[in-house]
Amino acid sequence: MPRIPIGDAVESGIQFLLDRLGGLFDVVSAALTRLVDTVYAILVAPHPLLLIAVLSAVAWFAGRRLPLVVFTVLAFLLVASMQLWVQTMQTLAVVIVAAVIAVAIGVPLGVWAASSGRASVITRPVLDFMQTLPVFVYLIPAVFLFGIGVVPGVVATTVFAVPPAVRLTELGIRQVDSEVVEAAVAFGSRPRQVLREVQLPLALPSIMAGVNQVIMMALSMVVIAGMVGAQGLGAVVVQGITQLDIGSGFEGGLAVVILAIYLDRVTAALGSGGFKRRRAQGGGTVDLALPKQVADVS
Amino acid sequence: MIEAENLTKVYGIPRDRAVPLLRRADREDAVRNAGGFLAADGVSLSVSPGEIFVIMGLSGSGKSTVLRMLNRLVEPTDGSLRIDGLDVSAMSQDELRPLRNRRINMVFQHFALLPHRTIRENAAYGLKIRQVPAKERLERADQALRRVGLERWRDSRPHELSGGMKQRVGLARALATDAEILLMDEPFSALDPLIRRDMQELLLQLQAADQRTIVFVTHDLNEAMRIGDRIMVMRDGHVVQCGTGTEIISSPANEYVSEFIADVDRSRVLTAANVLRTPLVTARPDESPGDVLQRLENAEMNGVFVLDGADRVLGVATDEALARALRDGAATLDSCLVGDCHTVPPDLPIVEFCDLAGRHTVPIAVVDDDMRLLGVAPKAAILAALAAPRKVGHA
């Protein structure tokens, strides 16, 4: 069996990118650093107690459930008392940036994948590849391309988080009642109008489930991003592991869990809440008996 | 005016490969062997303005495919389609959109409403696509909702409505655009029988006022008979028979159609005109009772219609009255005339008058608007018409 030099090809490919497009990567790197820094600056600008109030308000408006608000207040107070507030906000900034980028890439890709069978066939193996390739395998090239620090973490996190956005957007659009889509076309809608008026709104719960998954994926990546120099809870955990400091490692892990539960519950509530609330407004059962005087039509 | 010729749809193989196969004599087998499916095979139809044209068939007969080829939701593989003289089969997508928006609208089996929009917004959908300003389109939507009796519900959302009400919204959505052609894809099939009847009634009322051109798909022959001016029966992509309900019931084209119509309520489809017979005996008022009685005796009848010079029914003379007049020496029939009979117009369904058959000494009289006698509907003829033809191959 002759050896096919795939590894060599990838290596020279990365080298090629570095040689020819090094400038571009520097620009992307600078832009991402700026973005994360900005988000971080916004998050740490107010006093932690004020931000906890804001996070609690977001939790309340997302689901209108008191337990979630109580959890938010207590859990983030705990984070502050563990002296992990800064690191948690650094992590949150990375998660927010990576999730926004992943959604911005994933949702349009999902729309495209839903548009034709061929597009779906093309995207599926690529997504499988992105999701199952061991993270370190592309974390290391990312370090080569973008250098040590927060950026390879953001990039690796984004790559890891895009697939659920694509998959759930495609699924959501494909699950839209074909008759409703047909009706929109039968009334003369353009493809773009069908997408905007029918497919995206009806796929929204599924797309929001995708966003939820994106955030969870992103969060699960931040610890690993800590290994390549991204600051935040990942760094705390990595430090705990390398110094065999069980206590601080656990505290860092606990803060990750708190952040994860908060983000998951809030985005899940946003996804399902939209429909539930509307349903509740209508209220009650419907009087099936219709007035008979529909006869006076002529 | 819809004129479709030789509309053919092949699923499963690309058009450029399918068309040559269709030119062959054994096209059905050729398409199947190539891995395709012939959903509609050479369907021609023409629908006049103001007509309700029903396409009827069981599932898989190709009826929905044919309907969707009329607005090219399904792209015909072959054939030509003209609507009001416009060659629709040659139109580009850009030309099709205004056609669909302004001239051909559609009502769907499962209503196909937008769940996240209110009833009003749903009814206004076609106008929104047409970029009618919000105020005007909502006003027109309200008008359409009023016509279907739903204005009270205009701010509700579809999930709050029952099936029948949802389909009223579907109907209002099509009415609001003022399109002259309405394609209806089994619109009432998902509804309860009672609601279905109400909806058929509503459709007929709207149609009486608007005179739209309607192509209506159903698998329910009773529904087809009730609302259709003409019915096209389809099976396996072919047209089996096309004609009025009465034509189909009185002379089914083949075994398949006869099987189909076996369950139809014939008394609602057949009318007085279908059981019309020439009366064996009639009389003029100036005839002598003796002559008329003689004729009655020969025909073994107990009564006779007395007609004036223009064949208008003046009354009935029974044999007893004639015998009395003969005894009294009357010269004319004037003294024996009684109103003891029942008259019906020729388009009245049999169900409306069959209970009266045999009540009187004379058969039921079928008359025109001027009371002129067109013929009689004897009890035997009514019973013969109502008796379903025997199903062959069944015990």
Would you summarize the structure shown here?
Chain A is mainly alpha-helical.
Spatial strand sequence of the major β-sheet of chain B: 6-7-8-3-9-10
Output the number of helix runs of chain B: 16
**Greatest interface and its participating residue counts:** A-B, 29 and 45 residues
Q: Give the C-level CATH assignment of the largest domain in chain B.
A: Alpha Beta
How would you describe the overall organization of this protein?
- The complex is a heterodimer of chains A (298) and B (395).
- Chain A starts with 5 loop residues before the first helix and ends in a 16-residue tail after the last helix.
- Chain A has helices at 6-44, 48-63, 66-81, 85-115, 117-132, 135-146, 150-175, 178-186, 191-226, 233-242, 246-282.
- Chain A has one domain (15-273): Orthogonal Bundle (MetI-like fold).
- Mean pLDDT of chain A is 84; it is low at 274-298.
- Helix content of chain A is 83%, strand content 0%.
- Chain A is globular.
- Chain B has 395 residues and is α/β, with parallel strands linked by helices.
- Chain B has two domains: 2-103 and 179-264, Rossmann fold (3-Layer(aba) Sandwich); 273-384, CBS-domain.
- Chain B is built from 16 helices and 16 strands.
- Chain B has helices spanning 15-22, 27-33, 63-70, 93-102, 119-123, 125-129, 134-147, 163-176, 193-210, 221-227, 245-250, 255-261, 266-269, 289-299, 319-328, 379-386, and strands spanning 2-11, 37-47, 52-56, 78-83, 86-87, 104-107, 181-185, 213-218, 230-235, 238-243, 282-283, 303-307, 313-318, 343-344, 364-367, 373-377.
- In chain B, the strands form four sheets. Chain B has a six-stranded mixed beta sheet with strand order 6-7-8-3-9-10, with helices on both faces. A four-stranded antiparallel beta sheet of chain B has the order 2-1-4-5, with helices on both faces.
- The longest helix of chain B has 18 residues, at 193-210.
- The two termini of chain B are 45 Å apart.
- Chain A binds chain B through residues 177, 179-180, 182-190, 193, 197-198, 201-202, 278-279, 282, 286, 288, 290-291, 293-295, 297-298, and chain B through 71, 73, 96-102, 104-106, 108-110, 112-116, 125-126, 129-130, 147-149, 152, 156-157, 159-162, 164-165, 173, 177, 183, 198, 202, 205-206, 208-209.
